[in-house]
Design brief:
This protein has 441 residues and is mainly alpha-helical. The protein has one domain: Growth Hormone, Chain: A. The chain is built from 17 helices and 2 strands. A two-stranded antiparallel sheet has the order 1-2. α2 packs antiparallel against α14. The protein is globular and about 55 Å long.
Length: 441
Amino acid sequence: MNPLTMNPGPSPAQSGWAAKFFAIWTGQAFSLFGSALVQFALIWWITQKTGSATMLATASIFGLLPQILLGPFAGALVDRWNRRLVLIFAEGGIALVTLVLALVYALGVIQPWHIFLAMGLRSLGSAFQWPAMQSTTPRLVPEIHLTRIAGLNQTLTGVSTIVSPPAGALLLTVLPIQGILVINIGLELLAVLPLLFLSIPQPARREDPESGTRSTLAGLWRDFRDGLAYLASWPELATILAMATILNFLFNPAISLMPLLITKYFHGGALQLAWIESGWGAGVIVGGLLLSVWGGFRRKVITSLVGVIGLGLGVLVAGSAPSNGYPIAILGIAISGLMLPMTAGPVLAVIQAIVRPDLQGRVTAMVYSAAQAMAPVSLVVAGPTADLLGVRAWYWFGGGAAVVMGVVGFFIPAILHIEQNAKRRSSFVETPNGTKTLGQP
């Protein structure tokens, strides 16, 4: 199959789309909040029991690797399978893993490796859930609203971030950790509920010229290669992905090491960790709402580059705050949160608008995997580095490098012209055999 052959399928209805989309979106909001509660509780348990940056980095690696290594293949399966069923089984699988972990806690035999394993399995479920939802969005939402929906998704993330840490800290004072896990199970089931009654439009799939292979491992590998070839044909996107990979190398340790910044430098506890994470969430909420209403600059990539610079400045402020300047650190983290939707939302909207519908699952999964690929490497480096040089060293390095990267991005033509080239590639041209393909520059 020619990876550039267009088969757009039916467009979302211009009216009546909101009820169905937001019913599903609300269920995903419950799931996100429950996952954030579990993440806070598990990370705090590891912090209290071990006090080790390396152990925190290890937990983060287990939470990332399945999505990085298996995400593109999960995305290819999402393109093959019914996306509604993928979402149902992904959410259900995460709930089942959480139930087993709750039983291990209740029996009093919990060890760090149990948490690492559970985080890995939950991440595997997310490897299916994320591309399924991202590829479903442009099937339900008119293209004109995609950037605003991206901003709304960032707002949802921010609300979850600002509410779940204090909620988690409060729940830890009145419930055993298995109680929080049970709450998460209930919220995952609420995410499944609307999917039992609503349909999701499936894009038409092209038949494989080699009949009979689409149900085989060879067919799955071919699907993966088609998605990879599609990305390779778009050098502007490849450049953006390279920047995203570097950003994740810089910023993932700053997030993962936050508990140690609070406990070892600011001498705080769970409440202080909750407040700084809520500061991040408040920034994301404001940034997401601003993007939803404003829509960003006319050239979306400009919005993203400004966001990258703002992310770096916020991390620099947080890492440079004096030990008695905890409010300054909250301000810095809030600035970074404000700039996150400006960085990620516009680029995601461009991808959702241009990528062929029956390739949405694997391409969005590849984009996510590529963006996250350096995170485990950075965590392996950052954990021992923080133990050796102090946790603030990574905030200085990561923040400063991000500012430089954002400024340099304004001088790279492939980045500045990604939108114009994307529109040109989205036009149809007739080939000699009558096939409609994406226009070439």
